[in-house]
Amino acid sequence: MYMQFWGVRGSLPTPLTPQQIRSKISAVVQRIGPDDIKDADSRQRFIDTLPETINGTVGGNTACVELVNKKGTVFILDAGSGLRALGKKYGGANPRTYHILFSHFHWDHIQGLPFFDPIFNPKTEIHIYSPVENVKQLLSDQMEAPYFPVPLSACTKNIFFHIIKPMEPFEIDGTIIECKRMHHPGGSYSYLFKEDDHKIVYATDVELQPDDYKKGNPNYQFFGNADVLILDAQYTVEEVIAKENWGHSSFSHATDFATSMNVKKLFLFHHDPVYDDKKIHTILKTADWYMNHNRKVRTEVSVASEGMEITL
User: Fold this and answer.
1) Euclidean distance between CA atoms 201 and 305, whole angstroms
2) Which of 61, 65, 128, 180 could join 82 via S-S bond, C-beta 3.0 to 4.6 A?
């Protein structure tokens, strides 16, 4: 199974500011030496040695993750602003089938749908999945005037809505899918994907609760032994205490949960819009230290970043 991140931010899109760009340029200038600019090869070597906080960015688009199974079936997890770039990848002129699964309907998870080029191709087929029965109305409302000039009714007629039930698995082209309600204001659903021996869990907008860590409950069946866990880690420890019931977790809660579920690889996801690249990667270093401190179970921890690709 192939996976790519197209949007990893929480709450609202967060483009780099001019000040942040100047800061990155300043950091490059401070590091560069005469030997680094002698020729094209030396310049490239210098660029390749720059830390991730300078050489790139985690990105500013809101939640959108692409999964492709071995049959080439495309699954899209949430329709945040990252969905626009995903649509450019496939091109609006090339009709195909997409399966879009929604965790919930806060703005940062639906705002990319009107900018998804393939939806305007009459030959495109789109299947939308959610446990929320009025999903069609919720998605249509944001595309009605005065919010958007083109209504959902003017898009491809091949849009099909599927109301699914939590903890009741279903299959699409050989991939087993299941959803589970989590703690978040208004509700949010995590999704489990199984193909052959591989297991991926997408769990954005989750405020982990004490009972979630218990191995004897349905959580372990859902999350346990996942190859990949994409998990909400929007806050620091101090912030998650101050923002109780805001519906998000901290990186330390995420790492504790991943190890309790025997997860192989954890991606910290749904980054706070006030965090810059430096702070997010500092959180990653702290999470990695925390994970290694007196741990018998070793879960690999990474920051979810736009453009990142994983193949299982």
Assistant:
1) 17
2) 61
Tell me the two tokens of residue 151.
Answer: 């209504």
The structural domain count of the chain equals 2
Q: Residue 297: give the domain boundaries.
A: 2-15+57-311
The amino acid sitting at 277 is D
- pLDDT, one tens digit per residue, over 39-57 is 999 999 999 999 989 999 9
Going by C-alpha positions, the residue among 143, 139, 141, 140 that lies closest to residue 130 is 139
Q: Are residues 133 and 218 in the same domain?
A: yes
Question: Rounded to whole angstroms, how far apart are CA atoms 296 and 66?
Answer: 32
For residues 193 and 159, the answer to whether their CB atoms sit within 8 Å is no
Q: What pTM did the predictor assign? A: 0.94
Return the CATH number at 87. Answer: 3.60.15.10
Q: Which residue, 20, 121, 92, 77, is CA-closest to 267?
A: 77
Selection from 174, 152, 177, 151 nearest residue 162 by Cα: 177
Tell me which residue of 183, 174, 271, 267 sits closest to 219, measured CA to CA: 183
b/e map 155-164, b = 16+ CB within 10 Å: bbeebeeeeb
Count of CB atoms situated within 10 Å of the CB of 117? 18
Same domain as 40, residue 130: no
Task: Strand 74-77: give its sheet, edge to edge.
Answer: 159-163, 125-130, 97-101, 74-77, 64-68, 2-7, 309-311
Residue 228 region by backbone torsions, left for phi larger than 0, else alpha for psi between -120 and 50, else beta: beta
230-281 per-position pLDDT tens digit: 999 998 888 878 888 788 898 889 999 999 999 999 999 999 999 999 999 9
Same domain, 166 and 244: yes
* Helical ranges in 56-116 per DSSP H: 83-90
Q: Which residues make Cβ contacts (< 8 Å) with residue 227, sequence separation at least 6?
A: 198, 199, 200, 264, 265, 312
